[in-house]
Amino acid sequence: xxxxxxxxxxxxxxxxxxxxxxxxxxxxxxxxxxxxxxxxxxxxxxxxxxxxxxxxxxxxxxxxxxxxxxxxxxxxxxxxxxxxxxxxxxxxxxxxxxxxxxxxxxxxxxxxxxxxxxxxxxxxxxxxxxxxxxxxxxxxxxxxxxxxxxxxxxxxxxxxxxxxxxxxxxxxxxxxxxxxxxxxxxxxxxxxxxxxxxxxxxxxxxxxxxxxxxxxxxxxxxxxxxxxxxxxxxxxxxxxxxxxxxxxxxxxxxxxxxxxxxxxxxxxxxxxxxxxxxxxxxxxxxxxxxxxxxxxxxxxxxxxxxxxxxxx
Length: 312
Hints:
The chain is 47% helix and 15% strand. The chain is α+β, with helices and mostly antiparallel strands. Helix 4 (100-106) packs parallel to helix 10. The chain is globular.
């Protein structure tokens, strides 16, 4: 085989590999987009049913049946079991200290990438690059993303004060096990992590997302969300260099698992959970490394992060 033929063969192989990676990412994005669309349809149906219920109440009142209606209580949803202090400490310890070997074995995993942006001023807090998270405790997509985000920022500093919760039992992907950042604390020499749990668990049809406010974003944070959030949560801004356009993997991977099972699976690269969460964490880490100028080197030059960087 001549040199020209070998060159063409190598070029064709590279093109085929790139096409394969693009197809894989495209399939993942299509699945997540379909899931998001189902979520939006469910919310619209919920609002229609709510309006229909109001009309039915008026009709019942006119028909003098209001007393009967008031005497009927909807079936109560059993609350998720509370996590004990020991369980919370164990899960926090495991999630914030995933072994580097697990990250490296997973690479980009099955997660989708982030959206790169240019031309914006750096997002800074306390003189350090900022990672801003805006989400809601009820939200199943936030539930999925928090695992990866917690694991990623823990590679640059110390994350503590996590709570163990479930997403809403009445939303899509009901009762997804997750963490809450509502009382979280973070310290790092490289990075500022600013989480905002905008909405809580309780329903409130008077808010944009149908759930009661828990924490309020600042005016600057709301402006970023309004301009780049696409009207959905979770919203993640990494230094104004990368945005999370949608959750990086489908929450169904976590269905039926306990918090301890999720945390343990993150440490085993052979599991589907690790391929989702650790892959997403590697991509977030690679994006953070662009705003920390490659520091710390041991993290930013690790095999898993370098592999994920190609899928941002």
